Amino acid sequence: GFGATLSAARARWLACDATLTRLVLDPDGLPLDVGRTARVVPPHLRRAVEHRDRHCVFTGCNAPTHWCDVHHLLEWINGGTTSLDNSALLCERHHTQVHHGYRIERRPDGRWRTWRPDGTQIHTHPGPLAAA
């Protein structure tokens, strides 16, 4: 910490009229999660999303990071936070599709899945084998 010690009574007094803002920092002290205080993704958070996702996460798309928007998985207007955990890179085409019924989800292993509006999952299939 910063060396300051507060008594419980002083903390209650300060909290009486306070607002609370959660801020999660990376090892360099840059915010990775700004909670609900900002909808627009700050540059350092965008860099973290680009580093994690590498390209558009929509199944079958490899659009580079500079073609992509940072999408809130749970929309900010519906209570979603501006955070690394609630973000995904989507190219303009797929960002539009996600806002028109398509759905993306990050699995616990970090891989992404995509569903059509009718609920069917989009799978990628390997191309035909080259003739030897």
Question: What can be said about this structure in brief?
Answer:
Residues 44-96 form the HNH nuclease domain. Pfam families: DUF222. This protein has 132 residues and is an alpha+beta fold.
Beta content = 15-25%
User: How many helical elements?
Assistant: 3
Pattern of helices and strands: HEEHEEHEEE
Q: Taking Cα atoms only, what radius of gyration do you get, to the nearest Å?
A: 20 Å
Describe this structure in words.
- It is a single chain.
- By secondary structure, the chain is an alpha+beta fold.
- The chain has a domain at 39-122.
- 20% of the residues lie in helices and 19% in strands.
- It contains three helices and seven strands; from the N terminus they run αββαββαβββ.
- It has helices spanning 8-16, 43-53, 92-98, and strands at residues 24-25, 31-33, 68-72, 87-91, 103-106, 112-115, 121-122.
- Strands 5-6-7 form a three-stranded antiparallel β-sheet, with no helix packed on it. It has a two-stranded antiparallel ribbon with strand order 1-2.
- β6 and β7 (121-122) form a beta hairpin.
- The chain is elongated.
- The mean pLDDT is 83.
What labels describe this entry?
single chain, 132 residues, alpha+beta, 3-stranded antiparallel beta sheet, 3 helices, HNH_nuc, DUF222 domain-containing protein
